[in-house]
Amino acid sequence: MKLAAFILLLCGIPLAFGQSDTACTTAFADKQVRFVVGASPGGGWDRSIRALAAQFEQESQARTYVLNITGGNGYLAAKAVIDGTDDQLTIGLMSRELAMNPMGTEELFSLDAFHVLGVLTIDREVWIAHEDFQWDEHQDRSLVAFSVDAYDSALRFGLVGQLLEQSVSTVLGFRSNSEAISALLRGEIDISSTSMASAVRATAGNPIQPLLVLGSEPAAEFPDTPYLAGSGGLVEQLTSGSDTTTRQRRMQMASDIIQLTQPLRAVYASRQVSNETLTCLQAHIDNTLFSPELSEAMARNRQVLTPLDAEAASARLLADQALIEKYRAELTTALEAVSQ
Amino acid sequence: MSSYIEAVLIGINNAFSLQGLLIIVAGTLVAMTTSFLPGVGSASLMSIVLLGTLAWSQESILLLFGALVGGATFMGSITAILFNIPGSPPNAAALIDGYPLARNGFPRTAIACAATATGLGSIFGVAVLLMVLPFLNLIVPQLGSWERLLLGVWGLASIVALPTTNTFKSLVMCALGLLLALVGADPVTATHRFTFGFDGLVQGVSTIPMLIGLFTLAEIVRWRDTKHDSGWNTEAQPGDSTAAGIRAVITEKWLALRSSLLGTVIGIIPGIGGTAAGFISYGQAQAFSKDNEQFGKGDIRGLIAPEAAMDAKDGGSLVPAIALGIPGSEAGIFLLTALLLHGIVPGTPMLSSQLHLTTTLIFALLISNLLTSVLGIVSAPQLARLQHLPLQKAALPLILVCLLLVLQLNGSVAEVYIAIAFGLIGYGFKRLQWPIVPLVIAFILGEFLERNLSISMRLIELERIAPLERPVGLVVIVMIIASMVFVRASPSNLKFENRFHAADLCVALPLLALSSICLLVSITESYSSITLAVSLSLWLCAAFTVIQSAREFSGADIKIGINGVLSTAIGNQPLLLLAVFPLLLWLLGFHVAIATTVLSLAVFSRAMAGRRLLLLVAAALLSGLGSYYIANELNGLVIPPGWLFSF
Fold this sequence. Notes:
Oligomer: heterodimer
Mean pLDDT of chain B: 78
Strand content of chain A: 15-25%
Structural class of chain A: alpha/beta
């Protein structure tokens, strides 16, 4: 009897899993899933979501299509994700900033409005400038930087500028990284901040130099470029004459800012999606995110897949949210400074 | 240069592959057939095709749209020549001398001449485009936000300055287009503007439903008003032959080449479009001909010039569309929408990493243009029989199909309401001769202009750009002034009378009310200065129009107006359908509303004839179920039930 039960159990476990997979595949075979991104076609975000959607289609057998909903700095895309239902299943690839509403803007959303399904990539941020740019020539005047939105201005330029004792003014409204690079080449702006993957591409074919890696150690891609935090970082060098408390506080702030500035592309769905659909969706997304095919597809786009499952992704986002709360006052002050 | 040659070879390979040729031939034939139906036009066709090809690959969509752009232009001229009805607005210039030629017994000559001239024009336009293409990638990165802003302004200024439309009405429509573009989230700050609490407006006014409404629904409703004159002399005169038409173009080769050059240049200027190309080249042909007494009475030169220019402009108009994302014509609006929907970015990528897609589009356009010319010569007499198609019977089913297509785009009932609203508004604009194209071009350019204005202002504030010290910007300013002078001073015997009528109050008063509300909201909600400026501009334009129109107004106009509206509404079933459908949609839901509409229209039109009611009920049920199957089953959408079924 025990043997029979054991055999049944042995057979039952894979059967149950197999049935679940089959049920999910059947459920999704008729579905049309919309992948939404708040960026123009052709850029890094667009390439990421197209790779994700294509692999998801392979995994789930669902029909997928990508919708680029630009405008409102991604707000409109986020709204489309929130409005998704079982019948209009919508998956969004968005930055954490969009889902968290870090500046507390009344019209934006909060993390509670989304199911976090996972993380596709976590990268490092790099400041880039024209190859003729010299730090020394800008000691006494404000640097002009391109920035995506108010929070981006405050965090990537305002707070980093404070740590470096360098004033920065930002210009909002550029639509893509390539527009910002063109502006750098025309001399309209001094610096721009971008992901490591984009920085590598930008410096390869243009007279562009990496200026500062927002990391706590030298980057393998740009070993000679200064970095912000950690031992040997610019903040440590700048605070060498300060008292221990001040130094520790600034070093900690630099470390926290690095975490917050890491470009993080997370995968979201609406809270309106039913639990039944969500279970299948989560299974398909997990299979997609951790598939070698997606990794290869991303590599062809010169992007590195750094997946996190839903649990790890949620934990990371909550930790980032706590950091934003910690620096809320500094962010507000920094925003005023960069808007001058 | 090697990458350019490689891209050209890929483009040739894509266009001349079996699949490529099939798509081009099919697209060209569809475009030829639909543009042959008076009033349908390329814009209506493209708006429908746009919805049905969302799953197509990038190469296929470019091949198809290249074919549609190429196929539509020429066949619209055939209707102008044979019936005095241009297939689409750009073909209007062809009727001035083309129709008299056909009436005088030379229809074959006229058609062959038009086909040969368009073939020559299209080869010229594409050749210029291919020559310019390698240099665009050097120029585009030099265009900063300031220069882009000026180029956008150039597009608007050009279309306002056109001599073939009422300048002030064009200006009002531009202001209205810009205001509509402001609806929704601010592109920089994400502030909600002019949404008035409606969630559906947060994403802005949906482009495709708006285009379907303004171009397709409005046009279908207008079929009812169009008088088809088919009383021409069918007896061919001696000497009327295809060869005579071809010979005429060869004899007037310099005129054809000059017109092609003019068409290409006009196409490159953002925003002007084919209508201007046709009329301006017609004007120059007339002005530079010594013996021009026969112009307007059937002079073949008056046909060669607009035909060569119209097709040459297709190549030219791709330059601003590809390089900057600025539509150069009505077709360009749809082409750009299709590009963005399929992940193709106008601008630097289309000139570098995606150059092969650009060349694919160009070669599709070339093949399509040549194919239309050949087919036009061969099959025009047979196609002429389409004149007897019962267009008005097709109007109602076409409206319902359009609404279903809009619904299946996003499964949003709100977008159906938007399409209907713009259909009714567009019909009103057309009836009162208010130009729609400036509105749409301003709407498409709105976000582009706002963003570049915002960046430019900030860069000027930070002393990073000095507008008067930027040579490219200064060149663009000179080009704006020169093109406006050129367009206004060009000889054209069809300059529009710039005056208002009492009927214009029907447009001006609602616009004044709308702009007053927007102005008030802009001030109270502290919207950006750009929003305030656009609202104020529209308010000033609308107020001026009200004053001008009111001068022409007399008490009798009210009675005439009411009678006119009533007779139009009662006699025009498509118009009635558009007016009543929103109510049915709200009350019954989409599918039941479709079934009810079919039933009531069938009963209304056939009850008198004593047809069987059972058959009509079956047709209605079939329509409702068909609509349900397409939306709910095929596309997996769930359409909300109407108010009546929500209890």
